[in-house]
Design brief:
45% helix
Length: 173
């Protein structure tokens, strides 16, 4: 419930679908979404949908948030799955480096023959002991130029901050 308002806020401001993703074992699971006016084809089939970590951009962020040794072992175990999706370990590792340098990840994936751009931010919540989460938006390829991507990321950051502040306020009442 904490991050539902963030999904609504992001989608209202951007018209893009937004997704709350969590890591579960070696999978990325969609735990909530808000469908936007501008459609792009997601990998997951809605709430409850799951794909291997790294197949989607949010899964790369979730991998990057792992402790190095655990991430390396997870990557060893996922390499075969990635091959089924046409993704290489080198490309995943390059995206992890990019995420660590910027604090977000912008990536392109193909689903059902359609390429889409995904912007993903980590959800940094110390109260989520052992859980890793990410907020993503999905856009048709070439819809967002660099300026629009930066604006969307700021909207996402503010929405996460607003949701966390509201949650803290409710806990004090």
């Amino acid at each position: 419930d904490t991050y539902r308002p963030a999904l609504i806020e992001v989608t209202a401001h951007t018209q893009l679908s937004s997704y709350l993703m969590l890591r579960s074992g070696l999978d990325t699971i969609c735990v909530d979404q808000q469908v936007g006016e501008i459609f792009a084809q997601p990998y997951v089939s809605g709430i409850g949908g799951r794909i291997p970590l790294g197949v989607g951009v949010s899964g790369v962020v979730l991998l990057a948030m792992m402790e190095n040794r655990s991430r390396d072992r997870a990557c060893d175990m996922l390499t075969g799955k990635w091959a089924e999706w046409g993704i290489t370990r080198d490309s995943i590792e390059a995206e992890i480096v990019n995420f660590r340098a910027t604090g977000f990840l912008c990536g392109i994936r193909r689903s059902h023959g359609i390429e889409s751009l995904t912007l993903t931010l980590p959800i940094l919540n110390n109260k989520w002991s052992g859980l890793a989460g990410a907020l993503s938006v999905l856009a048709p390829l070439n819809l967002l130029d660099d300026k629009a991507q930066a604006e969307t990321l700021e909207i996402m950051k503010q929405a996460l901050a607003n949701a966390q502040a509201a949650d803290e306020k409710m806990k004090r009442i």
